[in-house]
Amino acid sequence: MTWRATVLTIFPELFPGPLGTSLAGKALAAGIWSCEAVDIREFGEGRHRSVDDTPAGGGPGMVMRADVLARAVDSVAKPSDSRPKLLMSPRGKPLEQARVRALAAGEGVIVLAARFEGVDERLIEARALEEVSIGDYVLSGGEIAAYALIDACVRLLPGVMGKEASGAEESFEAGLLEYPQFTRPQEFEGRPIPEVLLSGDHKRIRAWRQAEAERLTRERRPDLWARRKGDGPKSE
Ligand code: SAH
């Protein structure tokens, strides 16, 4: 069955955009997933199809209207549609690989990519939108965040990447960052490939990669390291 991504945006021409290239693009052409962009302006107010207004209480910028967005959301999120309704938002829960995996295993996503200062809070409540952040920084719009979320999901769909995407060895899959990778030439500017990787001894190679993944995670992401549980003792 086709995994369906529907993006609500005032810039529908941005989709599929970069998602139409490379592996995601091939999978799109093959019908493994679909990408529909819905123009929020079609649900706007008045002759100018206005979607935003000044913030209640004053302050800078504009806020996207609840009534306009509700019409846009309701045009795609029919009661029979079980896809989660996501709002890209720096206030949201930071996106992680486990959530990406769960989303990829479902029927698809409905993504609201906001603009301006954000959206009327009542819309978020009334349509039970799940706020999702792609990191602690502020983008000028939700479209680039939607690219990130959809791309992360699509590469996990069966038939998109081959077996490496489902491999447990990628960053985050085992609560660890990935081990360092090398390829030819055997020596680069005086730096050789670690001897163990040329040994052909798969047991030693696996142990080296595991140790390196643990070292990198401990050094770079103490937060991930601390959260890690299950596989083996937490050597320190
Ligand atoms: N005034 C808001 C930021 C608005 S940025 C605030 O301070 O929280 C405009 C839009 O870009 C947001 O509504 C959201 O849809 C998107 N956006 C910006 N940063 C994002 C992030 N880190 N993750 C996901 N979406 C983001």
What is the gist of this entry?
The protein has 236 residues and is α/β, with parallel strands linked by helices. The chain contains 8 helices and 9 strands.
The whole-number mean of residue pLDDT values reads 95
Low-confidence stretches: none
- The spatial strand order of the largest sheet comes to 2-1-6-5-7
CATH architecture of the largest domain: 3-Layer(aba) Sandwich
Q: Measured on Cα atoms, how large is the radius of gyration?
A: 22 Å
Helix content: 25-40%
Give me the secondary-structure category: alpha/beta
CATH superfamily of the largest domain: SPOUT methyltransferase, trefoil knot domain
Number of strands: 9
What is the CATH topology descriptor of the largest domain? Alpha/beta knot
CATH class descriptor name of the largest domain: Alpha Beta
Tertiary shape: elongated
Bound molecules: S-adenosyl-L-homocysteine
Number of domains: 2
Helix and strand pattern: EHEEEHEHEHEHHEEHH
Number of helices: 8
